[in-house]
Known about the structure:
About 60% of the residues lie in helices and about 0% in strands. It is an all-alpha fold. It has two domains: about 10-160, no CATH class; about 175-245, Orthogonal Bundle (Arc Repressor Mutant, subunit A). The protein has a two-stranded antiparallel sheet with strand order 1-2. The protein is globular, with a radius of gyration of 23 Å.
Amino acid sequence: MPTYPCTGECDYDGVTALDTARRAFGFLLAGPHPISLDGRAIPGLPPRFVPLDQVQELVMHSRCPQRLRDGVWCHLTTRSRVEGGTWTVACVGMALPALVTIAARLSARHRLEAADLHAAVLAGFLTALAEIDLARPGVMNRLRWAAYRSGHAALREALDAPEPGTPTRVTGGPLGRSVEGHPDLVLARAVAEGLLTAREADVIAVTRLDGRSLTRFAQECGSSYEALKKTRARAERRLAGHLTTPRTPPSVPSGRSRSVSSAAAGGPLPGGPR
């Protein structure tokens, strides 16, 4: 049975949302009849009933074909949508390694209650689970980035909130200029704004931030090295161009331009005292 450590502070029950999910997934795997997938329904799985912890090991293996990963996640997501309950818990359990990693990465440099962060990450995953397009490849990649964006939003809200007894801080602004240089947050915001696709952000995060070789990641994704290299290069050029573009001051509505110019020159405002 897989185990995932309880990280960070806990809520009043002593556990976070991800800890609760871990325990629930453990219950589904316990006993003589653990929750399983019929491998005959998913090409690439053994032609028998396969317990979900074994399925998890298969799809997390570096040499697992992307087609098999997508097949498993499409099957799981569909059952969650149709049957709910047990299969939604199963989806969360299957994704726990990624969700725990997301929560740990987001909290690495910024202070936020673990219970709040874990709840936000889980909520983002569950929302995407109900809505994500299963016809597109990279189902789990997109679910993971949805969870990341949700956790990132909670983190930004906490960072933007004024400290008790201090004046209100005004933050925000274009991508990368108010996230304190955290590269994961920059990538998450880039996906949210449509600058990068989830796949492009994943390639950058895994090969640049996690230190995995492009060759290995290409094998995991079922892509060629050259194709993935070009994808990363194009995405990085686009991201770098955006981050280095000077901010453009907001334009003044045409109806106000003469008034502002006149006031700046010391002249009377239209409709004002002459």
